[in-house]
Specification:
By secondary structure, this protein is an alpha/beta fold. The protein has seven helices and six strands, in the order βαβαβαααβααββ. The protein is globular and about 50 Å long.
Length: 227
């Protein structure tokens, strides 16, 4: 049996002009995860990341915290869907920006209501967000990474750094979940959260989902984020 550790990237820059970079909090989350694993003597035989900047920055933070120097395998099939394209497919008008801190929570909720609806329609094949693969192709990119791990790393510890969409898709695939259940998993996964699979050459088995063991101390109580 091998163990696959799937990590969602640290907090990115939601609401900024460039989401695809870690915030200062995201950097701290990533480094702390590496420290946590180093304290427990966990080492990896292989590392796989998506090709997005936030994936690579998260791995760099983990490597810094753990004192690791692996060269990761870049796997484009682990890249996140384009949430803005998903929303535009069902809501072509620009979303309102908050004019005050009081407006932000409701606009945030509105954004994710649209995202949930857009994801459901993309997964059903009723919309085709511009510049994105079909949902079938997206799933194939994720399951291809799982197949690679099973075929090449039996009995090893493998780290995979990606995003909420691919990780929830992997869990949904392994458990045989409906698209609706996969969406709910996706929208609840936390930044730098760890999901674990055991695997053999034939299949993966879910051990844990969306855990934050590295932040389970009072000093980190404000470090749990979602965006």
């Amino acid at each position: 049996m091998g163990t696959l550790y799937l990590v969602r990237h640290g907090q990115a820059s939601f609401g900024s002009d460039d989401y695809d970079r870690l915030s200062e909090m995201g950097q701290r989350q990533s480094v702390q995860l590496g420290r946590y694993w180093a304290e427990r003597g966990l080492v990896f035989d292989a590392v796989i990341t998506g090709t997005l900047r936030r994936h690579q920055q998260t791995w760099a933070g983990i490597a810094e915290g753990a004192g690791l120097s692996y060269e990761p395998l870049a796997w484009a099939g682990l890249n996140e869907y384009d949430s803005e394209a998903v929303i535009r497919a069902i809501h072509p008008h620009p979303l309102q920006k908050p004019r005050s801190a009081a407006e932000a929570p409701e606009l945030y909720r509105h954004h994710f209501r649209l995202l949930r609806d857009g994801l459901a329609q993309w997964m059903a094949g009723t919309v085709s967000p511009q510049g994105m693969p079909s949902y079938t192709e997206f799933v194939r990119g994720v399951t291809g990474a799982l197949d690679h791990v099973r075929a090449n790393h039996h009995g090893q510890n493998v780290l995979l750094v990606s995003s909420g969409g691919p990780i929830s898709t992997a869990v949904g695939h392994v458990l045989g979940l409906s698209p609706e259940a996969t969406i709910e998993l996706n929208l609840r996964i936390r930044n730098s959260a760890v999901t674990e699979f055991q695997f053999n050459p034939k299949r993966h088995t879910l051990l844990s989902y969306n855990t934050l063991p590295h932040l389970d101390r009072a000093e980190f109580r404000d470090w749990a984020t979602y965006a």
